[in-house]
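Supplementary Text 2. Reproducibility record for the structural model of the 491-residue chain.

All settings were left at their defaults, and a single model was retained for analysis rather than an ensemble. We include the record here because the model underlies the residue-level annotations in Supplementary Table 4.
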Amino acid sequence: MDRFYMPEKIEEDHFTKIKDLFASESPEKIPNQLISLLEVFDHFKIDIAVTGESGAGKSSLINVFLGLKPDDTLAAPTGAVETTKQPTMYQHPNFPHVRLWDLPGMGTPSFTSKSYVKTMNFDLYDMFMVVISERVRENNMLLVDEIGQRKKPFYFIRTKVDNDMLSQSKKSKFSEKRALDQMRRDCEKYLKEKKLDPHVFLVSAHETQKYEMQKLTDTLKNEVSQLRAEEFSSFLDKMFHGGWISARHATNHIQQTGKLQADDITTLQNMYKRTGFGAAKVSVVLEALSHFQLDVAVLGETGSGVSTLVNALNGLENEVSDAATAYISNPAMCNGYPDVRFWDVSGIEANVDYSINWTKHVLNCYDFYIIILSDCQKARHIKLAKAVEQLRKHYLLVQTKADCHLQTRTDLYCDETEMLDGLRAQYTQGLQMANLCEQQIFLINSLDRSSFDFIGLESALSGDLNTVRASAFAYYIARIVKQHQQNNTET
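Retained model, structure tokens:
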């Protein structure tokens, strides 16, 4: 393999802050400290309240987030009459740390404007979506005032835009763009009067492909991680630096709302006693983690389909071409895997056959591996898997040309499933004979993402990358701190 340059995993400013933060720490202790911290952070939930007047379309909006139709069993109840009687929690399907709360509508006999905020206990929530329809009303701005007093972030969402467009389209000289621009100006006018500048979205729960539903979803996806990190740091600040009353209130709130369990809080308290790892340090760590690049090596022999698989993971179209020469490409950034760099590492046969120690040296700079299965007789994938296991890292095993295997076995009088099961069994037997860890074998056709095990591969890959991110980050930080300390000693 050619020599290549591996870019830093975090940007320079975060790199510098991390080095300064751990300058006096023992590098050997850093991994366990960070892994314990990030395990607790992984349990931390944030709560987003969807609020507004009765009939504004809050529950319908919730169902869009859930990907459910109104008559689905688990859907939030919707209707012309008041359907939500108490705050109801829904787990966001795409963000496991986010809980959406469908609050009862404001301005009904059951929940009058004067008592609404106190009854709903706005202090329980980390963020709000203020849902309005048709026009901005006094009650909408009362909610905005209450949220502003608590200095909580919020989105201002006008729903039922499809109904508005249908109504206005009957006017002469109708222009959808002008009508939408006017709606936005109306919303922003009242918000600017209060010197507020939240995101404003114009959406329809029925025509989700039109208007700004996708923009709303994308914005939440982009901002929710930062919000969660800020809320976690804020909690630590209250628990460790706010005095015993503030600490008691914060811990009770966190436990009562189920954001963390009692064991998690104990872990944080013990960590602070041992290391002084408080809110300021945690904030620096979480900021660096949010920019941390995970490096995944896709390993295979020349002509095994490494480049084709990388393109398939990135959702790019592939064309069958002649086998490429051995090389390590520049990393590919895939939209479906944020902050992950996929490295096309082709032509591994020369190094695997030459020296397993050299192979381990090359592999050690990566965090995770996709090993493309080779011919069972050559079994180079066995050597690669052994090298990765000796590095105590994780990998997936993939056969990228399952369709070609089927085409070459037309002489067998059995169906496709039996042939594929036989291929899996053959590879599994080889792994067992080599005393390797039991692994699922993914049989795919990189040119057809809908066939064989490709969807299962993507699901397993996403789960595994989320699992290894914390440990990869922790050991990377320990390594750069150790290098920094050695450099200081030498100078």
